[in-house]
Amino acid sequence: MTARDAVFPAGRHALYERHRYSPAVRAGGFLFVSGQVGSREDGSPEPDLEQQVRLAFANLDAVLAAAGCSFDDVVDVTVFMVDPATRFEQVWSTVVPDYWGQAPFPTATVVGVTWLSGFDFEIKVTARLPGAAHG
To answer: How many domains is the chain partitioned into structurally?
Structure first.
């Protein structure tokens, strides 16, 4: 088996090592980013929901940057959220505009969940690697 081309940002290794996964893997011209949560460097959750979402986006930004990508390269987003019926609009309307910029936006799927290992929000993306062939 070929070694995975894993991408690790500076910091936050406690969470990745504790749960045995790579933050992102390059393959086929794309970057597949594992779900990013609003964790501090020690892996603990940020308690305030809006701040947890902002920290999840900051953590995602660090993973993208470590691979030479930005939010402009993101083509697909999956969000997992505890109780999205009462919380989604609050966080999506206040945090997302700071990151996605103008349309066209990436595709998105939001999934309501009951458990995220102590977190309330997780975001997973696929990004096109700069220099990869356009399709």
So the answer is: 1
Q: Where are the beta strands (DSSP E) in 10-106?
A: 24-27, 30-37, 74-82
What's the burial of 57, exposed, middle or buried (CB within 10 Å: 0-12/13-18/19+)?
A: buried
Look at residue 134 and tell me if it is in a domain. no
Dihedral of CA atoms 53, 55, 60, 63 in degrees, nearest 10, equals -170
DSSP 8-class letter at 9: -
Q: Mean pLDDT for each consecutive 10-residue tract of the chain (135 residues)? A: 83 70 94 94 88 95 96 97 94 88 91 95 97 69
The pTM for the full model equals 0.90
Q: Is residue 30 part of a domain?
A: yes
First to last CA, the chain: 27
